[in-house]
Amino acid sequence: MSFNLDTYKREAKAVIVDDIDFDDFRDQPLSPEALRCLHYMTDVETHTVCYLRDLLVTPSHQNPRITTFLTMWNFEEFWHGDVIDRVLAVHDEINGLPRHESVRVNQGFSGNVLAPITQCLAAAVIGEDFIATHMTWGAVNEWSAHAAYGRLIELEQHATLTKILQRIQQQESRHLAFYMTEARERLERSRRAQRITRFALKRFWAPVGSTITTKAETQFILRYLFQGGAGSRMVRMLDQKVDKLPGQEGLSLVSKSVAKFGVSVA
Ligand SMILES: [Fe+2]
Ligand SMILES: [Fe+2]
Predict the structure, then answer these.
(1) Ligand lying nearest the CA atom of residue 41
(2) Exposure check for the chain: N or C terminus, fewer CB within 10 A?
(3) In angstroms, rounded to a whole number, what is the distance separating the alpha carbons of residues 230 and 233?
(4) Residue 171 C-alpha to ligand 2 middle, in angstroms?
(5) 42 C-alpha to ligand 1 centroid (Å)
């Protein structure tokens, strides 16, 4: 598998919604549960620039292929948040810059100062193999985001929301393709990278967004989207995808992580 970075950098763009009539949501508003999920989702999407800050202090920033991708990735994720904010705005829900600012301020000293410093130091000690961990982490997060949008589409059955979220999903798939390609290649060529990545995932990986919001909100979205039936099947599928990465088999990563938030995948 290869990823054509030149093509991607030429084609990266804001998710297209010119043809979407946002007033559809006035005629057929979303459920309170869907709106709560969308708040969580836009918080994550618009926090991408902060995740990028923490990654640019690691060896990943020395690799121009990686930084080219991250530049476009950050741009596209920004627009994912922006379009979700437009949906929230139609419902008169809090959204936009004041909301994003409050999420950032709420990270406090730990999230805003200690996180980039500790990540910088840990990654410097690990060196080049850190990039394999970063790429694997990114792949798991993109899989999770794609799955979460898919579950919301299934649960809400709202034609306009479906159109918007499917377009976001298309871009998440492309992000995933980059992360997956890089992760697989880097893990395949380094046993040390496999061990470090396995340790990092097992010890530190948590559902996307859980580190920037309250436990109650994470519990809500995980239970709403992934508890039981089709949700559980999705979680097991995510586990299987992680298992297929070199040196990462048998982690049950996602099911163990969601269990910490009270979601069982029986
Ligand atoms: Fe996104
Ligand atoms: Fe993405």
Answers:
(1) 1
(2) C
(3) 5
(4) 7
(5) 8
Burial class (CB in 10 A: 0-12, 13-18, 19+), 11: exposed
Instruction: Yes or no: say if 199 and 136 are a contact pair by the CB < 8 Å rule.
Output: no
For ligand 2, the distance from its centroid to the CA atom of residue 176, given in whole angstroms, is 7
Tokens 């979700």 belong to residue: 84
pLDDT tens per residue across span 44-98: 999 999 999 999 999 999 999 999 999 999 999 999 999 999 999 999 999 999 9
Q: Where are the domains of the chain?
A: 5-208
Ligand 1 centre distance from Cα of residue 168 (Å): 6
Closest ligand by atom to 44 CA: 1
- What class does CATH assign to 5-208? mainly alpha
Which of these, 59, 61, 89, lies nearest to 74 by C-alpha position?
61
Distance (angstroms) between ligand 2 centre and the Cα of 74 equals 8
**CA dist 197 → 30, 47, 96, 251 (Å):** 39, 23, 35, 11
Residue 81 CA, ligand 1 centroid: distance in Å:
7
Residues within 5 Å of ion ligand 2, judged at the Cβ atom: 142, 172, 175
User: Nearest 10 degrees: CA dihedral of 212, 213, 219, 223?
Assistant: -80
φ, ψ dihedrals at 255, nearest 5°: -65, -40
- Segment 203-212, tens digit of pLDDT: 999 999 999 9
pLDDT tens sequence across 60-74: 999 999 999 999 999
Residue 10 Cα to ligand 1 midpoint, Å, equals 18
